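Handout, tutorial session.
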Amino acid sequence: MTATTHDSLFPAVPDSADAVLDGLDPEQRAVATALHGPVCVLAGAGTGKTRAITHRIAYGVRAGILQPASVLAVTFTARAAGEMRGRLRELGAGGVQARTFHAAALRQLQYFWPRAIGGEMPRLLERKVQLVAEAGARCRIRLDRNELRDVTGEIEWCKVTQTVPEDYPAAAAKTGRDVPRDPAEVARIYTTYEQLKRDRGVIDFEDVLLLTVGVLQDRPDVADTVRSQYQHFVVDEYQDVSPLQQRLLELWLGGRDNLCVVGDASQTIYSFTGATPDFLLGFRTRHPDATVVKLVRDYRSTPQVVGLANGLLAQARGQAAAHRLELVSQREPGPEPSFTEYADEPAEAEGAAHRIRDLVASGVRPSQIAVLYRINAQSEVYEQALADAGVPYQLRGAERFFERPEVREAGLLLRGAARASADPDEAEATVPQQVRAVLSSRGWASEPPAGSGAVRDRWESLAALVRLSEDFTAARPGATLGDFVTELDERANAQHAPTVEGVTLASLHAAKGLEWDAVFLVGLTEGTLPITYAKTDEQIEEERRLLYVGVTRARFHLALSWALSRSPGGRGGRRPSRFLDGLRPGSTARGGRGAGTGGTGGAERGSGGRRRRGPVTCRVCGRTLSDAGEIKLMRCEDCPSDLDEGLYERLRAWRTEQAKALGQPAYCVFTDKTLLAIAEVRPEGEAELSSIAGVGARKLDTFGADVLALCAGEEPDSLRGAPREAKKPSEEEAEK
């Protein structure tokens, strides 16, 4: 396990082009020196891909082969773009543009709009969910919170795959998407949403890409201007490009081949957004003369962690699996990954918190520890367990560091103090002493406040600035407070945030591109990973890749765990994730079960689905249903009912108790129509229950055990003890 040093935080700028190449391994050096023609870098997790491509750009700039302003490096998150800008600045190539696809397109669209279209550019819609909700209401389609999130996601998918509303039902069926409502209803909402945008003169983030593509296609003069500006392109995380992003990239290139792409098909985890590894895997076909470099030396993880990651992918199937990279660890051996089974989720969270507390006591910094889970709703029990154990934590996906109010305020105060630092009274004070003096008036103290919450979050932000000032002074002893403020400004522009000292809680998707000394992968049960609505072979394999991403975040310590029931005293019917078969002690591989079964192109049921796919038909007469109430019942209103009236009354009584305990209206548990459908179908397992409209993944997880117990004539757990607490989706989940 390696500690971060002052030199790595504030490295000296290389004094020559050749010095930029120092420390690169042979494959990374091959990337850095391949400055002409198409280049494809297949880079496994932890192999130094960002290091290779930033050194490639810096070497080209420092050698005079590339002009900084002529290079456009694009990636997929503002954080990754900020990290790239920070590294390029440290290598002496600060003038290079490193942006997300959307940021680069928006900048071009804003510049060329008056010339290409005329007038003022429409306002950018920050949050589209409200407009989608209004579109649903206009169509007389009521969307609950989960459906609203999912319909919004479907609209985004349509736009990045360039699918128009009238083609959506066929496209959804062809690609096997799990649609949140009848495809015809989604298409109507999509049409109305687009009309509302036009009426109000606004555009969304997907429109930024679509409009930029349109301008570049229709206006050769604009395209020529862009191409004369940018001569060389670098695309990071190329396995995550969508067809729309690929089209934009082709228009930027304009037939030229000065393109370097970097990616790993085994880390494709965003296909639900329209991302596809096809462009990465087909790069050599499109560019037969391309230079292809494979990076397989893993500098991040121990041989034990790498061995588990390789074993996980060894059972994978599909096109991405056929191109998997076998990683080779370059680190000294470490502890074996641990596999732990718990009776229930609170026990699992408590066990993880205690192990984390022991790691911190042994010298591992909290900021070098992460707890990763499949969905954000799982974080709550870990927040409580860590708080009870006295361990600081931070939720990944929160507000950007330099945009936090306390950080912005601190920056203003430090800037004022720097202007006054010529005062003789301040002459003897070091930079960290001056920073502490300024920040102590705004809530910083040498000891953190007790507990968690907003006060603790504020202290953590200010403490990060104090630590940064200490590292900065250690690396540059002669620096002044003014120099430190300049460093803060440059980091803010690059979104190169300092480390906040707390255990990271994050979803597996949010953890992509990050790494920690110790990683806890929790909640690894069937129905959670793979998620219950992953049914087809392709969807199951993406869930496997998601776990692979989680495993490869760990440098040294790796803990994998699962719980047999959700709450104490519950029925312990859960099973460990199939992906652990053959990897955890005492288990054997299931002969390809992880890849799914059932041939090609069919609708896979697997371990259960979150919702029905495609048009819903009456289970009595077979007619296609369009009325929302009939869809909930899964039959026509006038078709004969096979209702178990006793079960229906028991379900209603149980719902009343749940609603009281949760302080919510009864329909927030289940609607009357959903209860009727349950009482008619009388499901015997999760798969059958999840096929009923109105029983989504969250409600299945929260109430599924109780409902199945009632259907079996048993008393549910919640009526024998404390009622279950519903897990509400986080704001981040609601946005997806």
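The second record follows below. Compare its token runs with those of the first.
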Amino acid sequence: MANSFAAIEIGKRSLMAHSTQINTAGHNISNADTEGYSRQRVQIKTFDPIYRPDLSREERAGQLGQGTSVESVTRLRDELLEQRIVAQTNQETYWTTREKYYTMIEQVYNEPDEISVRSNMDKYWQAWQELSVYPDSQAVRQAVVTRGDTLAESIQQRYTALSGIGDLINGDIEATVKQINTITKQIADLNGEIVKVKAMGDNPNDLLDRRDLLVEKLSGLANVTTDIRDDDEFMVHLEGNILVQGHIARSFDVEPVINNNGYSKVIWSDTKNAVQVSGGTLGALIELRDVDIRGEVQNLNTVALNFADLVNDVHKNGIGMNNVTGLDFFIQEPFVTSVNGNYDRDGDGMDDHSYLFRFTGTNSLNPQEKLGLEGTMTLSGKNGTISVPYHATDTIAEVVARINDSDGEVKAYLDRDNHLVLKATTAEDMENPDFVIRHVEDSGMFLTGYAGVLNGSGAENAYDFARADAANSLRGQYSVSPVLNPAGYIAVNNEIKGDVLSVAAAYPNNQGKSMIGDGRAAVEIASIRNTSVMIGKNRTFDEYFASSVTNVGLKGEQAEMNMLSQNAIMDDLRNLRDSISGVNIDEELAEIIKFQHGYNAAAKFVSVIDEMLDTVINRLGV
């Protein structure tokens, strides 16, 4: 049965419960501005009554209550809402990062008209046009050289600006990798502490808040998901791979990629496999560097290389007023010093690859002539090789168009002498070098005896860059691949800058001399402006610049619109979370007043019981 002192115990429990509630409310107030903190509430339950339903209980009505007890201190948190926030955060940071860097890229293309690459190229064409009208003018020749030099410098400046953004992004990638490694280690350490606290039967609310905050920050850096099915082994996944498992955290490393300007590739520290990231800051940075910036630089390199190649093709066949011929107007740095393009790719001291950019056939072809031949050409493609068939009824022009319309990384055209030219493009796969023809093979006779590119048919006579002296498979002329990023090295030939009379406006006569008033070479160079050339696809240089500016502008607009949309979504989600988990100072103060009244009432209750016991013990029967 209940004794006289049971009421004291009831009062004590009430005092302790209200004291815990007051302390918890104070804890909430003190952490009102703590990032990631979730307000806490004390869960109260009635203490077990004295009389239980068994045969030994005293025969009296009702159960005697024993007051209250603190069951737990829990966080007010909506787990489903938290999962939505984690899932959406990576998209917010992804578009924010893209918008930030596309603002910088747009600034590169938003040059003042008088100093832009496009306006300088226009002035360069105009100088050649004027030289075609006044082919004997030394002053006009000087204008051609000066404007060519200005154009080369503006191309170099654009490359420098784009590569500078690439360098900045690469530094951000390395810093983000370190940040991810730090956060995953902290999550793993917290997992170990949380498991220990739960094993003691307590709720590690503050530790859980810290872990949830770290997970949210991690989700902003990469597209992660969490698995909480096992209380003892909280897990974080990245693109289907385990990133954190309980107290164990995996980490990332970075290693340079030679064919990507030495930029860092993110790999798993344990397996050395490449890390696949599709969202968050890291995903945006990798995409910006390896797709957007790399694509813009590759396009600029392609334009610079093709532009210089086409001008040089005419100029070296022309002749200057000083009767000098055979000079390239623009110079490009070769990738290797070997005339055969031999290169030691694996760094073992032995040449093992051939880096060649262009093949030129020996035979002059008629574009409208039917082949009368059957076969299949095998050319290097984006992934491996591609097949391009040709038939007896095809014309030369149709076969050339079929090569260019294919998904290969080798393009074709007929030069001014109607010789077939095969030229390498940039490589989509970073493991492959740019402007290097990797494979050319023909099962028939088109590229062999007909066009004069290869020495023989079949796989045994194919050209493949994965061996030294692969140029021995070629019948016609070839050129070594240019240095990586030729847009950064394009320049006017110093011999021409030293003597502007070397500018070739004419073609040699029968005696190999320059004729007065001959401006045919100048006319042909000026006409390149409106000629469709193979810059990824057939288009003029003006069309390239227009499409480049449009492409950058549209992608920048897309990034800005998606960023604003995602910000609005995240603001709604965070506001909803704050309404559930955030600390409201006024609400906490009201709760403290309520708990204070309860505490005072419990104290009064204890005081009354004390007086009753005093009466019973000290006064009754005395």
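Points raised in discussion: The chain has a mean pLDDT of 90.
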